[in-house]
């Protein structure tokens, strides 16, 4: 199974407080969130909207609980804004993560994205990039990836529901158009499965470029409801489309097998946004931790 020295286990704060919908978990403090992550047996996290912005303060709070920062999400607008604007924000983000000791920078293209729109039906309205937008996106990512490399870090691109890079075909296109040395891939099981794509196809094809993993499960019945009722991404999350590995409909065993037999080194980060009033975050973090121990041997 997994080489325990090569893998670090983390969990995202989005199950406690949701960055896309701050009203979800609005009453949960940063301290409760990170304490419960540690209590559930995780050693890392990504950055949420309640985390202290000050590097020393954040480091201290995390060290007290045996946690470190795996990475943090960055929204790029390469297809809709001047490149310089995205670059300036990216460099600040990179430098913050560098100071926190992270090795990967999660980037999502949010130009034309509908993921933050409460009433836009998800499956009917995802953006489709034009030829020119693909070129602008790939060029911009190559440049940002080079800036990440300057600090010995890696840009990992997050394919995502409701964005221009969602499907396997779109991931193939992005991987083809970007430099192997500058642009890597974040593999998120939940987004591929929800999209109707086969996560194993992407995992197998891009193992050499996958440098960060989000483990997210999907409830099939809710995914069906989302399609039937033409719900948006945010409505889907509120309905409970995502959950922790082991609690939903996706079989993670082949993913664990493929990853553990590869040279993958880095984070496996549980990421399951749902309403904390319906799904107690500590309880679900414990379910995920148990599942990883039993099914992945870690
Ligand atoms: O990595 C992620 C970050 C979130 O903000 C996002 O909406 C979620 O679905 C995700 O996969
Ligand atoms: Co993710």
From TrEMBL:
<keyword id="KW-0456">Lyase</keyword>
<dbReference type="GO" id="GO:0030145">
    <property type="term" value="F:manganese ion binding"/>
</dbReference>
<comment type="pathway">
    <text>Polyol metabolism; myo-inositol degradation into acetyl-CoA; acetyl-CoA from myo-inositol: step 2/7.</text>
</comment>
<keyword id="KW-0464">Manganese</keyword>
<dbReference type="InterPro" id="IPR036237">
    <property type="entry name" value="Xyl_isomerase-like_sf"/>
</dbReference>
<dbReference type="Pfam" id="PF01261">
    <property type="entry name" value="AP_endonuc_2"/>
</dbReference>
<dbReference type="InterPro" id="IPR050312">
    <property type="entry name" value="IolE/XylAMocC-like"/>
</dbReference>
<comment type="similarity">
    <text>Belongs to the IolE/MocC family.</text>
</comment>
<feature type="domain" description="Xylose isomerase-like TIM barrel">
    <location>
        <begin position="37"/>
        <end position="281"/>
    </location>
</feature>
<dbReference type="GO" id="GO:0050114">
    <property type="term" value="F:myo-inosose-2 dehydratase activity"/>
</dbReference>
<dbReference type="InterPro" id="IPR013022">
    <property type="entry name" value="Xyl_isomerase-like_TIM-brl"/>
</dbReference>
<dbReference type="InterPro" id="IPR023952">
    <property type="entry name" value="IolE"/>
</dbReference>
<dbReference type="InterPro" id="IPR030823">
    <property type="entry name" value="IolE/MocC"/>
</dbReference>
<keyword id="KW-0170">Cobalt</keyword>
<protein>
    <recommendedName>
        <fullName>Inosose dehydratase</fullName>
        <ecNumber>4.2.1.44</ecNumber>
    </recommendedName>
</protein>
<dbReference type="GO" id="GO:0019310">
    <property type="term" value="P:inositol catabolic process"/>
</dbReference>
